[in-house]
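hey so u asked for the seq, here:
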Amino acid sequence: MEIHRFEKLWVALALLLIVGFIGTVTYGAVGAGVKMVDDSGGTVDPNALNDHPRFGEPGTYQTGENEYDVYVISRQFLFEPGTNEPIRVPAGSTVTFHITSSDVIHGFEVAGTNVNTMAIPGQVARVTVQFEETRNYGIICHEYCGAAHHTMEGQLQVVPQSEFSSADLQNPAVADRDEPVNDVDEEETE
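ran it, structure tokens below
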């Protein structure tokens, strides 16, 4: 059976494209460190977020010198905090976002950064980023979550160290807490 030379060319191009796709997925998973949301950030009861030590009062908590944890709840159709009040962090700080949802699957993306994750009810997504320059960032939901999804947005303000104060923290006394907060539900082992 004879195969026309153009058919051979198309078969070769298709195989090259398949190998290229496999290569980009492999690079994304291994080289660039792209990961799926998993339970390494912990789990919470989405129906009892008000009882959680941090998600009960979502906001910015200082955990060390120039280190902050930001707890964010995504719910239809807002981010708490972020929508009605901006999230404020100082420039030159390392910020770990802890994001969960109270109702349906949402997205959490800080536009212009590598902060981009899904907010899944019951799971806590954890993303760490360092903000060097002062700037305002938009926060958007990139997962369709209902009829008003297009209105779900928020704001992150990275301010100079001199403009950041304890008033920007959710609970300034928590910075020197003695016991760590464990978001992970412990499973009993027998």
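Confidence is low (pLDDT under 50) at residues 174-190. The CA atoms of residues 106 and 138 lie 16 Å apart.
lmk if thats what u needed
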